Amino acid sequence: MNRTLMLLGSFFGLTAVIIGAFATHGLEPLLTTKQLSSFETGVKYQIYHAFLLLFLSLSQKILPRQKRILLYMICLGIVLFSGSIYGLATNQYSSFDFTTIALITPVGGSLLIISWMMLFVYSFKHKEE
């Protein structure tokens, strides 16, 4: 489980840097300030949660079953939240109309919020030795 968390945390961190660099150098002339700001929000949340996955991979306090649940919640949250923001910000350059699925953005955000709440509860319940 720790290896999977480390690999996915590294993957999401890597892709956040690549996507952020692409936005800065490739999309900046094409997007409005508001669209670019929205896109950057997606990148920030992706990298924050990549760090969370890396933290979980190193944590000895969270049980493997709890880590697995958090892994699924965080990964799905990143894909839905950040992914939909990327699509919405660049919608005019896509053949798919991302506004038709715009409601998945708050679903992804909710999954990320719930993940943090679950981590809090898991940590609260953990007894110090």
From TrEMBL:
Domain of life, source organism: Bacteria
Cell compartment(s), UniProt: Membrane
Statement: the UniProt record of this protein carries the keyword Transmembrane helix: yes
Regions that span the bilayer: 47-63, 70-89, 101-124
InterPro entries referenced in this protein's UniProt entry, alphabetically: DUF423 (IPR006696)
Protein's membrane topology: Multi-pass membrane protein
Main location: membrane
Annotated keywords: Membrane, Transmembrane, Transmembrane helix
Family note: Belongs to the UPF0382 family.
Protein name in UniProt: DUF423 domain-containing protein
